[in-house]
């Protein structure tokens, strides 16, 4: 397995890019740790495939370098990078059996049959196809063929990295969960460096140790699922991750207090923020009350989603979402919302501003 270094990396599909907007991938410097599982998460068109294709060697970046364990592979073709890839749609040999397909990457590298058999058995068990090893791939469903593609991607232990590009798109919902769990287990057992591209937050958060959130060609945050939830570095992360996403309130800040409209709230810490200042609060950290301090708001509807309720409120014309426990009463005359201090994040021009104590730490 390898550490992957992205050094001063950027890519534009235009021959002569003139401004940052011309770059599908904006400048990025990062070390991706050896043996860690990363998910590349973002909306369609944000640059995920561009970044993955640069790492796999399908695309040569217009700027910067890619290093595997310190070795510059920027110009090296895919075949020389010793990586395994699984794409959105199945890539299998129809005339071969399931076993033949799974064994192919090992045979191709001259591995002894005695070593191949147990490895194929293990991967077949993982994808739930032990009973179909002698079947020809032709005639299998797209779902089954994609499981074979996943198995083939995972059968070698000596790869620098395993790259997955939305691999579960054609898999049925139940099996998706099963395969994600298996991938996670495989990662724990073998410690491969894995990069998994998806636009689905559940997939990213359940699979990865670290989630790389991309927005508009830029990596806006790399963090654990918990970090992305508690301390979104950019308003996009707050909005994109979580269901519903983070609420944002325009505010003026002075020291440890903020004004939102006519209301004043205590922030629990001091901040220095300039530009467009917003307070971000996830729906989990909003509470409802009747009278007293807080921001004026009225309940507009309640959605019961099973394990909890989503309360939609109207706060001076803006919609605010709050999560309430299943049995929690929602008083009809409730007219104020307030924020749990630990759930408050401050943003200046969309980027998180650390509280002054945290900044110094
Ligand atoms: N070959 C290309 N030539 C020109 N522009 C491209 C090319 N490939 C991608 N782009 C543009 O680069 C930007 C990033 O695209 P990319 O495919 O990397 O995003 P993505 O996040 O993987 O999206 P998706 O999930 O839809 O595949 C988009 O604006 C896209 O239109």
From TrEMBL:
Protein keywords: ATP-binding, Cell membrane, Membrane, Nucleotide-binding, Transport
Pfam families (alphabetical): ABC_tran (PF00005), OB_MalK (PF17912)
GO MF terms held by the record: ABC-type ferric iron transporter activity; ATP binding; ATP hydrolysis activity
Top-level division of the source organism's lineage: Bacteria
Keyword Cell membrane: yes
SUPFAM superfamilies in UniProt: MOP-like, P-loop containing nucleoside triphosphate hydrolases
Membrane-spanning segments: none
Keyword Nuclease: no
Residue ranges of domain ABC transporter in the record: 4-241
SMART domains: AAA (SM00382)
Record's GO cellular component terms: ATP-binding cassette (ABC) transporter complex, substrate-binding subunit-containing
Family under the similarity heading: Belongs to the ABC transporter superfamily.
Protein name according to UniProt: ABC transporter ATP-binding protein
Provenance organism: Pelagivirga sediminicola
